[in-house]
Amino acid sequence: MRLRRALAGVGAMTSAILGLSVVLVTPASAHGSMGDPISRIYRCFSEGPENPKSAACKAAVRAGEAWPIYDWDEVNQPNANGRSREIIPDGKLCSAGRDKYKGIDLPRADWPATNLPAGGTAFTFKYKITASHPGTFELYITKQGWDPTQPLKWSDLEPTPFYKQLNPPTSGGSYQLRSTIPAGHTGRHLIYSIWQRHKPDSGEAFYSCSDVILGS
């Protein structure tokens, strides 16, 4: 009887430990990033965090190590509540102000860029999702003449989003953000996305930086 009780106790303890392990290794925040035009962090993840191909991704890994790149869908602020400009300092927009992702804040002109149509053309931006949540998407573009070799500041972005929508449609594992690329923008730019969830669901927000070349 004592032996059976002891074995039962060991079994219960083992189950509890295994259950705790599952909880610990399950990502608390895994939700998404811009897939087209591909974001910096998703690009580096696609290249392979341990041995990326592009010079910019190699530099990002040197600056912040490889392990943060695996969390490409978790560049977030858990309690943003619509206060992104207040809580994310200049120079740290791409990392959402988190030191963990500091590698993708590196100011350089050789980040791999996606070719997009010229300004004034309609385009469907695709935001890749690993977990879907109600929320509002905003897309911003850098001002004409933006210098990619300088740290990205809020003032480098156009003051109003060129796209803003609550709960856009999804297809093929991505939110479909149909919009017109702002006219008067050509050459190298950066598309900055904010995905703001709303309370009572959550005040969390997600961010991404996508390097693009317009009109090429």
UniProtKB/TrEMBL annotation:
CDD domains: LPMO_AA10
Gene3D superfamilies membership: chitin-binding protein cbp21
Residue intervals of the Chitin-binding type-4 domain: 31-212
InterPro entries: Cellulose/chitin-bd_N, GlcNAc_Chitin_IntDeg, Ig_E-set
Pfam families the record matches: LPMO_10
Keyword field: Signal
Key word Manganese present: no
Protein name, UniProt field: Chitin-binding protein
